[in-house]
């Protein structure tokens, strides 16, 4: 088994991004700028947003955070998005999910100017991705594709089984792995909670992408010897043995599955770090007007 090392790859790619960000500053007189909106105080969301902001600073981007408590109205939030859409100093805007129940995430996603939608969730970006046109690719799938590329993982003709069909991970991942490009050219099976005989479907995979949100869901008996394992899951559990007070687990039973896999991403230290790189790459591309002129 070999590790798909998110720490190593993300550090390397962030150095390249930092060099390009310096170029943007030199030519445009300003840094690439990412704005994040965070509503409420969900522990996971706090951590993700803090990490995104910290990484922006690391690569020489400007970052701004707008915080709201759970009582913010949908109107207030949409008005803020509108204001940021118009701000020429901003290249990328993300709204951390999940949002409180009284706010419609679809309305929020559609309100963001697709030219600043560096999370790649807007229907215009998803539609363009579907058609293989330049667009912002959702950050997690984008990060996974960079990881596969970095380790030159063979994908052509392979059977890729994606477990989970969310709009932000599973579904876009299935499209990217099936498209006529590298990484890609896979035969893809997209599975979910209604899939019959999931165990055997997953056991037939050359590449498994697990994006379910259930600790140790993919067990060794579901894995073909030599399979490539991409573990997207981030499951937080309270822990008395860690400084932060919690511990992270993937969707894959790493200890046992790693004995059968050819390549595997650890959690933490895998896909999560690459997601940040995806976000930074999209923000940089926006600042350089590479996608939407
Ligand atoms: P969602 O909850 O939106 O989707 C989960 C998917 O898993 C659904 O499609 C669901 O099926 C499917 N599922 C649930 N239970 C089963 C089951 N028993 N058998 C088969 N399929 C099942 O999750 P996300 O895609 O947003 O996230 C998935 C995981 O990835 C989470 O742990 C999340 O924290 C993590 N994540 C990690 C990121 C990173 O950067 N590493 C980024 C984003 C997410 P159905 O549609 O039928 O309900």
TrEMBL record:
<feature type="binding site">
    <location>
        <position position="234"/>
    </location>
    <ligand>
        <name>NADP(+)</name>
    </ligand>
</feature>
<dbReference type="GO" id="GO:0000105">
    <property type="term" value="P:L-histidine biosynthetic process"/>
</dbReference>
<keyword id="KW-0511">Multifunctional enzyme</keyword>
<dbReference type="InterPro" id="IPR000672">
    <property type="entry name" value="THF_DH/CycHdrlase"/>
</dbReference>
<dbReference type="GO" id="GO:0004477">
    <property type="term" value="F:methenyltetrahydrofolate cyclohydrolase activity"/>
</dbReference>
<dbReference type="InterPro" id="IPR036291">
    <property type="entry name" value="NAD(P)-bd_dom_sf"/>
</dbReference>
<comment type="subunit">
    <text>Homodimer.</text>
</comment>
<dbReference type="GO" id="GO:0009086">
    <property type="term" value="P:methionine biosynthetic process"/>
</dbReference>
<keyword id="KW-0486">Methionine biosynthesis</keyword>
<dbReference type="Pfam" id="PF02882">
    <property type="entry name" value="THF_DHG_CYH_C"/>
</dbReference>
<keyword id="KW-0378">Hydrolase</keyword>
<dbReference type="GO" id="GO:0035999">
    <property type="term" value="P:tetrahydrofolate interconversion"/>
</dbReference>
<keyword id="KW-0368">Histidine biosynthesis</keyword>
<keyword id="KW-0560">Oxidoreductase</keyword>
<feature type="domain" description="Tetrahydrofolate dehydrogenase/cyclohydrolase NAD(P)-binding">
    <location>
        <begin position="138"/>
        <end position="290"/>
    </location>
</feature>
<dbReference type="GO" id="GO:0004488">
    <property type="term" value="F:methylenetetrahydrofolate dehydrogenase (NADP+) activity"/>
</dbReference>
<comment type="function">
    <text>Catalyzes the oxidation of 5,10-methylenetetrahydrofolate to 5,10-methenyltetrahydrofolate and then the hydrolysis of 5,10-methenyltetrahydrofolate to 10-formyltetrahydrofolate.</text>
</comment>
<feature type="binding site">
    <location>
        <begin position="164"/>
        <end position="166"/>
    </location>
    <ligand>
        <name>NADP(+)</name>
    </ligand>
</feature>
<keyword id="KW-0521">NADP</keyword>
<dbReference type="Pfam" id="PF00763">
    <property type="entry name" value="THF_DHG_CYH"/>
</dbReference>
<protein>
    <recommendedName>
        <fullName>Bifunctional protein FolD</fullName>
        <ecNumber>1.5.1.5</ecNumber>
        <ecNumber>3.5.4.9</ecNumber>
    </recommendedName>
</protein>
<dbReference type="InterPro" id="IPR020867">
    <property type="entry name" value="THF_DH/CycHdrlase_CS"/>
</dbReference>
<dbReference type="InterPro" id="IPR046346">
    <property type="entry name" value="Aminoacid_DH-like_N_sf"/>
</dbReference>
<keyword id="KW-0658">Purine biosynthesis</keyword>
<dbReference type="InterPro" id="IPR020631">
    <property type="entry name" value="THF_DH/CycHdrlase_NAD-bd_dom"/>
</dbReference>
<comment type="similarity">
    <text>Belongs to the tetrahydrofolate dehydrogenase/cyclohydrolase family.</text>
</comment>
<keyword id="KW-0554">One-carbon metabolism</keyword>
<dbReference type="InterPro" id="IPR020630">
    <property type="entry name" value="THF_DH/CycHdrlase_cat_dom"/>
</dbReference>
<keyword id="KW-0028">Amino-acid biosynthesis</keyword>
<feature type="domain" description="Tetrahydrofolate dehydrogenase/cyclohydrolase catalytic">
    <location>
        <begin position="4"/>
        <end position="119"/>
    </location>
</feature>
<dbReference type="GO" id="GO:0006164">
    <property type="term" value="P:purine nucleotide biosynthetic process"/>
</dbReference>
<comment type="pathway">
    <text>One-carbon metabolism; tetrahydrofolate interconversion.</text>
</comment>
<dbReference type="GO" id="GO:0005829">
    <property type="term" value="C:cytosol"/>
</dbReference>
